[in-house]
Amino acid sequence: MSVTVRVPAKVNVQLAVGGARPDGFHDLANVFLAVGLYDEVTVTPADSLRVTCEGPDASKVPLDRTNLAARAAEALAARYGRRADVHLHIAKDIPVAGGMAGGSADGAGALLACDALWGTGASRDELLDICAELGSDVPFSLVGGAALGTGRGEKLRVLEVGGTFHWVFAVADGGLSTPAVYGECDRLREFDRLREGVEVPEPVASGALLRALAEGDAVALAAALSNDLQAAALSLRPSLASTLAAGSSAGALGALVSGSGPTTAFLVSDEESARKVADALVASGTCRAARVAAGPVPGAVVL
Ligand code: C5P
User: Does 22 contact ligand 1 (Cβ within 6 A)?
Assistant: First the structure.
């Protein structure tokens, strides 16, 4: 017997980052949108915990206990006083270390799959608590749709969305480390503070952006897209500027770095425009691949 769970990627349509907290995290106003690129996590009873992965980037996925899927299985097993004796197989389609919550998706997927396999009967709130312990983006991977994340991103308020938004994602060569990007953001801000006395404002969700989501208005959403980590991602990976420029000149309504990057996200008006922008991005030679996806889509689901 085995259980398979499908989990979507995310793009942050707004990522407002506050100052560094004493615990090393940053307070956020993080507007998540789940998009239709998916990982699938399959759990099968086994003698001991084992992780395998398939997909074009499988070799970049750690298969040890640092894998969020393994940690999710162990966390649920510990809570229910049992052994995490499962084989976790990840069919990976979400870019690895790409700023699209691929690792978080695998954590949420493994948690839901083990819960179903073991029949623990954990409540939704219990599962969300475990997700928050695993990582700041993991609760959203479980919930999906669109949500405003506050705190370090784990406290979610579900958002209504009045339509489907079409996206192109330019996949970069190699990943970026999330802590390194936050660290670079702090460093750049410290520089601005010393030079110009600029203080970091409290992170707040943009009213215009929330209205654009609620109304399903892609043009208004494009105008409101923002990511406070973008300057840091560009500082660590300057070549992303040419990717953003290539997508914008190909007709995207809006462009930004997805989360901590290095994937770049392009909001477009419809599917046809998505294909055109994707082709132009590939032809520009500024990215490794271009993927088309729409959102919002539901979070983790048992297949
Ligand atoms: O929560 P998660 O394990 O995904 O976070 C990875 C790293 O990203 C943290 O260790 C921290 O360096 C950074 N981070 C942060 N503020 C957040 C979320 C993540 O500084 N709100």
Answer: no
